[in-house]
TrEMBL record:
Residues 334-366, 511-531 are annotated as: Disordered. This is CobW/HypB/UreG, nucleotide-binding domain containing protein. InterPro entries: CobW-like_C (IPR011629), CobW/HypB/UreG_nucleotide-bd (IPR003495), P-loop_NTPase (IPR027417), Zn_Chap_cDPG_Synth (IPR051927). Residues 340-366, 511-524 have a biased composition (Acidic residues). PANTHER family: COBW DOMAIN-CONTAINING PROTEIN DDB_G0274527, ZINC-REGULATED GTPASE METALLOPROTEIN ACTIVATOR 1. Residues 304-478 form the CobW C-terminal domain. It comes from Aspergillus rambellii. SMART domains: CobW_C (SM00833).
Amino acid sequence: MIAKELETRQLPVTLLSGFLGSGKTTLLEHILKSQDHGLRIAVIVNDMSTLNIDATLLTNHKVSQTKEKLIQLQNGCICCTLRGDLLAELARLTKQRGVDYVVIESTGISEPLQVAETFTAEFSKAMLDAEEQFMDEDGGDEESKRILTEIVNMGGLHTLAKLDTTVTVIDAFNLLANFDTTEFLSDRYGSEEIVPEDERTISDLMVDQIEFADVVIVNKIETVSEDTTAKIRRLIGLLNPDAKVLESSYSRVDVREIIGTGRFNFLKAASGAGWLRSLHEMTVQNTGLGKRMAPKPETLEYGINNFVYSARRPFHPRRLFSLLHDKFIVLQSSQHAHDDGEEEGEDDEDEDGDEDMEDSEDLDDFDDFEQPDEAVILANKRSHPAFGPLLRSKGFFWLATRPMQFGEWSQAGGMLTVGCGGPWFAEVPDEAWPEDKDVRESIERDFQGKWGDRRQELVFIGEGLDPHAVTVLLDECLLDDADMKRWERVMKNKKLSTAEKNEKIGKMWEDGWEDWPEPGEEHEDYIPPMY
């Protein structure tokens, strides 16, 4: 029995994530009915809908007659404003000696990372600060503030409770189709459930939930063929190599695989170390373009494969846009748009939308490019010999006209999100680097030649993906030799300041990508990522 193994009073928690209809509620009922764990379980149910359908099912179920305690947060959305309620509720549960374990059923639109942050000391402090501000302005909840203060004084929620296992339930029948959609969450779930500022896409959220999970349950397995099942397992294995993959019908799994496993590690999950493992497995390979750095060869098992594109030369901004604009719905993250909206006040926010995610039709300044509608773009991607098989890509890129900063790239299906990631480490003062010796050595290993850690580094996952075809297309977007000489001439000019170099290079080529923050305008607590 799992109960005998849980000896500490640090209350363990399992988080259930997954789209609406994936089978989370059925799994929750299965957990509560199971005799295999021997635990008194408290359940926190989060439901965005005004009808509280999920909560009604649970409340009216026979399980409600058992000793398990069911808790429903009011108007619950743990991925947004009510994570503070979650924090307080978990704190209350830790004081109830009749509770051995907690299971949180998240809303279908929640990101597991945000829920996991609830268990960090930093989040507890931030919630207390927010509660104090709310108390000053609107009276607030004195009891919640008292609990939050107590949690902070004890060092954070993690001193009372720990996230034990993160579980994502996916619908086997719809998984691959969700890669092939241009839907935003608001398109699928409606404006009543999604706040106007939420510009997340279905495909992005789906991969977020898979990539963050300790356990992925492929549910409704009876609705797909064995070949499709094998393909799904292979895809999940590439998106999240460390996740345990379970197959189920009607969410029936061995509860010992999802309760009391001790599998969760916040730092590992938050860093995406599993997904980006391919970036650290680079070797010299013979490709169609001669010898170059490439990942260790992957067996094309069940048609799902991956590879890493890397180059030590920047992209020409126009060539890159020309390649992507009619094959992906390009979403661009603008730090300026977000900051400006906050400064200009409520009236301006209503007029401008104050959205930091905009589509390519609104943002690009390449006036001579015709912007196809979404249906055409999706059809173009499906039929494209190189990008048609592409399911997921992620990493960072180097634009010639943005020499001091790297771009972040995240694509799922037909949706591609790009934006400013921050300065290259080559532009970060040594004293601002992380102090950890191993981390510093890892950063230094990325330095090569005169331009430091500047490079293209993108991981691609697809179904029968042709690495050679994708590589050729991206290589054609790089600066040619003549352009590279012009670029280097400016960058090597010691008489020019960083701002002057940026200005000169910015005028060399047309750059219609959305503006990024000026170098040095990044947030003070910004730490460049280390892939």
